[in-house]
Amino acid sequence: MKINDTIAAIATGTGPAALAMVRISGPDSINIGEAVFSGKVRPSAMESHMLHYGHIVDAGGAQLDEAMLAVLRPPHSFTAEEMVEITCHGGAASAGAVLEAVLASGARPARPGEFSLRAFLNGRIDLAQAEAVCDIINAKTGAAARAALERLSGGLSRKVAAVRESLLDAAALVESMIDFPEEDIPPADSRALVQKIDLTESQVKQLLKGSRAALVLKDGARVVIAGKPNVGKSSLFNMLLKEEKAIVTETPGTTRDVLEGWIDVRGIPIRLFDTAGLRDTLDKIEAHGISRARGKLEQADLVLLVLDGTAQITGEDETLIAETGKYARLVLVNKCDGPQYSNNKFDQSWLRISAVTEEGLSELEKSLVSKLTDGQGIDPGAAAAANARQVQLMEECLKHLETVKSSLEQKLSYELLASDLKAAIEALGQITGQTIGEDVLNRIFEKFCIGK
Ligand SMILES: Nc1nc2c(ncn2[C@@H]2O[C@H](COP(=O)(O)OP(=O)(O)OP(=O)(O)O)[C@@H](O)[C@H]2O)c(=O)[nH]1
Ligand SMILES: [Mg+2]
User: Fold this and answer.
1) Which of 6, 22, 87, 162 is deepest in the core (most CB within 10 A)?
2) What is the pTM of this model?
3) Is the CB of 197 under 6 A from ligand 1?
4) May I ask the CATH class of domain 217-372?
């Protein structure tokens, strides 16, 4: 991919804001800055990374906005190219007018993710780091942002590169064996090869093992509260949301529509749903709500089935306990603050909570994290595959390593082994982008936002 033009975009979000930024990257950046900026210092004479006050003007010299301009000289810029950043007033009109002036002076509108693509193509960051840039922008909790920042600073890339290096060593060893008959190969070399393959396999497995936690941190999870009417679903929803969003009354069948809200549970962004109590009903509106509730259950990453500990467990509860068994779920016995109905038989694993006194909240949070991460817990510093592409490539790498191992066991030819080893190395290379096609790159970067 050749880069020889200059791109520009508004890098900040839409809507009213104090400030906005227009970003320019490419060989004409400073020339364009000269054309649109009027201030004490000309952009071509500016020191790198220093802000200068002035005005943005159109081709006729009319002032469009007050602004600060910085020149970022290569290679010390985000794209490693010559860049200019103009900070102007926020809101659609001002930044739009500045961008128009920049485009009129010769820049081309940037495509989504094109600044990051250039940073990647110019070797400033690798592909896993570029993906992390996107993850930081989309992070919904502090822990998710920290995990993405760790990937941007190369946490995952370094691990992947180290494994790839080991495999390259193994490949060199195999190449050296190809020309020799089996009996001439020192047993120590064969052992070293097996050891290297085993070690890399366990390292890749480790990176995959943490992926469930990394993915849930990045993408969040859908958690649906369900149960029969009046067990305290909406009270639990409000408690977790820390807001009286749902109507709570002592009348069964209060909630009709599905309600939702975002919560942060120990770093995991959770989209929480409150639903209508599940029961047989002749009420047409309630029946609509119940069918919506069932629809939500189908899409849930985790179901919180709520029971009422102060009342006798009914056939309706039993049916729901059986029915929701097919989902990932936690069963919660609510109202543990009240007088408990003594003849109920509850499973040991069911959590006792109170949506009124918040008893059991900490246990509930702990169980939520554990369920959603397959018992891994959340560690923003841990390196792990953090998107479907990385997971797929690591799985591909493992598949090839398995073949290498079975070829070794069956004493098949080293040529065959070398080609599987190469495929494993290539899969890892695609994670960081060392070996990757243009079409794949375009597919990855088009998911980014404009200006990044
Ligand atoms: N003592 C006690 N009462 C609770 C608790 N949780 C809910 N309640 C009461 O139980 C009643 C029903 O609560 P809701 O939260 O509306 O129950 P729901 O499951 O959403 O009910 P529907 O929307 O009708 O399906 C209300 O009177 C609540 O105040 C709890 O933990 N302890
Ligand atoms: Mg309710």
Assistant:
1) 22
2) 0.84
3) no
4) alpha beta
- The answer, yes or no, to whether any atom of ligand 1 lies below 6 A from the CB of 229, is yes
Average pLDDT of span 30-53: 98
Closest ligand 1 atom, CA of 252?
A: 24
DSSP state of 43: G
Query: What's the CA-to-centroid distance between 241 and ligand 2, angstroms?
Result: 14
Beta carbon of 337 within 6 Å of any ligand 1 atom:
yes
Q: Which residues surround ligand 2, an ion (CB under 5 A)?
A: 233-234, 254-255
Tokens of 3: 């880069």
Lowest mean pLDDT of 176-190, 197-211, 299-313, name the range.
Answer: 176-190
| Cα Rg of the chain, angstroms | 29
pLDDT in tens, 322-350: 999 999 999 999 999 999 999 999 999 99
Q: List, for residues 413-424, the tens digit of each pLDDT value.
A: 888 889 999 999
Q: Which CATH code of 3.40.980.10, 3.30.1360.120, 3.40.50.150, 3.40.50.300 fits the domain covering 7-126?
A: 3.30.1360.120
Residue in the structure block whose two tokens are 């592409």: 389
The hierarchical CATH code for the domain 132-210+384-433 is 1.20.120.430
Distance of CA 416 to the CA centre of its chain: 37
Residue 98 has pLDDT above 90, yes or no: yes
